[in-house]
Amino acid sequence: MKLYAARHGQTIWNAQNRICGRTDVDLTEKGIQQAKILAAAVEKCAVDVILSSPLKRARDTSQIVAEHNRIPVLVEDRLTEQDYGIYEGVDGKNPAFLENKRQFAYRYPQGESMMLAACRVYGLLDQVKERYKDRNVLIISHGGVCRIIRTYFMDMTNEEFFRYTLGNGKIEEYEWPEHSGRAGEECRKP
Predict the structure, then answer these.
(1) 68 given a catalytic annotation
(2) Of 16, 147, 176, 177, which has the highest C-beta tally within 10 A?
(3) Predicted structure pTM score
(4) In 3D, which of 72, 22, 24 has the Cα closest to residue 52?
(5) What are the tens digits of pLDDT across the range 104-130?
């Protein structure tokens, strides 16, 4: 059993280097082409099911991959991109945003912290591991979610985490860890 994580194709906000969390933006023509390239790459992965973020850019990418490979798609709300609050739509090089991005336990003003986002994604990954024991799963989501998924499978320093980006339309393969899960009950809301 393997988990594959992919990022949606390019959006206009990606092309403009604008922070895009919960805003529902469309794929660009380049993003559609990236999704088609991703669909061809998935042919070699023997994927049984796709779990997609509910945001349009991820759903559209998932649909292209699913139709090409005849794989079912399930929409999973916990794969929604992190809520960047007041930084939604600002330039990705904004100094205040970059400083906030380094503070994992600090909520983006009017948004969510990286730790809160990791809690929901880790909880989902624990469930996926149990529910799809003998199947290969492809998750199609967002840059921030893909960064969190990576930490579920491998340790990263804070600086590595801060700098890591999975490109639009790119895919990574992971092997499930031997232990029963990383998040456990402590991440569930009271």
Answers:
(1) no
(2) 147
(3) 0.91
(4) 72
(5) 999 999 999 999 999 999 999 999 999
Q: How far is residue 120 from each of residues 20, 79, 82, measured CA to CA in Å? A: 19, 8, 10
Which residue, chain included where needed, has tokens 């709300």? 77
Annotated catalytic residue within 8, 76, 88, 142 = 8
Domain ranges across the chain: 2-177
Residues 6 or more apart whose CB falls under 8 angstroms from that of 187 comprise: 119, 120, 122, 123
pLDDT tens readout for residues 49-68: 999 999 999 999 999 999 99
Name the CATH architecture for the domain at 2-177.
Answer: 3-Layer(aba) Sandwich (3.40)
Examine the residue annotation and report whether 8 is marked as an active-site residue of this protein: yes
